[in-house]
Specification:
Structural class: mainly alpha
Length: 138
């Protein structure tokens, strides 16, 4: 039950913002995931070279370009559309199956990671709206 001196709720029963910004940590998780993913993407270059029948100008450009876009994406995670940028990168990664099957499989694995992150984003927003995050009821 809230009291008038309780700073975590407003007079109309709405809860205030949490004491710690949950989006700051979530942005860090998304940026870190993109950096790890870019490293894994760059590690597919030797796989395509040795197992995939050789690296062509198209496959090399595609892999390196995708890795660079992921690194650059780590810096835009504060934007409201960043999660959809990340999902678009996953679609491009899955389409890498046309270069080598291992790239497509890796895209599916990371696609599951990003599907979970989209779910977490929705869950955090719902909990914040209901006042269930730590610091909103304290």
């Amino acid at each position: 039950m809230s009291t008038p001196s309780d700073p975590s709720s407003t007079p109309d029963g709405q809860f205030g913002p949490p004491t710690k910004d949950p989006w700051k940590g979530f942005r860090g998780v998304m940026a870190g995931t993109l950096i790890v993913e870019s490293i894994v993407v760059f590690l597919t270059i030797p796989v395509v070279q040795v197992v995939g029948g050789g690296l062509t100008w198209f496959s090399g450009t595609y892999i390196i370009g995708l890795g660079v876009l992921m690194i650059l994406g780590g810096g835009i995670q504060g934007r409201p559309w960043a999660i959809w940028y990340n999902v678009a990168l996953q679609v491009l990664l899955v389409l890498g199956v046309f270069i080598h099957v291992s790239i497509g499989v890796m895209g599916l694995v990371f696609g599951l990671v990003w599907a979970y992150l989209v779910y977490l984003r929705r869950d955090i927003a719902q909990r914040m709206e209901k006042g269930l995050l730590p610091g909103q009821r304290d």
